[in-house]
Specification:
Keywords: Membrane, Transmembrane, Transmembrane helix. This protein has 4 helices and no strands. With about 140 residues, it is mostly helical.
Length: about 140
């Protein structure tokens, strides 16, 4: 149950960060002036990496351990973790790289909304599995 608890905590952290970014951080991007934007965005990317990097790494390790222990019981968590990675790599990162227009910001907000929903779903699934007492032997 330890890896499931670790997974629950890390996905909850990612979901929380995702929702704060969705409601507060990304909308505030539109308030940054054009002259300040490049430095502001560069610093945001570096700092947010320190916030999401560690829990994302731990989430990857925990879902890997869960899948090794019981692939069928934890397959949904694996799919959700993969979806979070795919949304980040295929949508959020490219949107960040070209953030020059309101349209780019809308794309980024949409990608982050989907990512936040995936992380929220993984949190709920982990909590339900933990509460149901699914067996786990490392």
């Amino acid at each position: 149950m330890l890896w499931l608890l670790v997974h629950l905590v890390t996905t909850a952290v990612l979901a929380g960060v995702g929702w704060v970014v969705q409601v507060v951080v990304y909308p505030a991007f539109a308030l940054v002036g054009a002259g300040e934007w490049p430095e502001y965005h560069r610093r945001h990317v570096v700092r947010i990496g320190w916030v999401v990097g560690p829990p994302w790494l731990v989430q990857g390790v925990s879902v890997g351990m869960l899948l090794l222990a019981s692939p069928w019981e934890f397959a949904l968590l694996g799919v959700l973790a993969a979806a979070g990675v795919a949304l980040t790599v295929l949508a959020a990162v490219p949107a960040h790289e070209r953030l020059d227009t309101d349209r780019d910001l809308r794309i980024l907000l949409r990608a982050n909304l989907l990512r936040s929903l995936v992380w929220s779903a993984a949190t709920v699934v982990s909590a339900v599995q933990l509460a149901s007492g699914l067996p786990f032997t490392p």
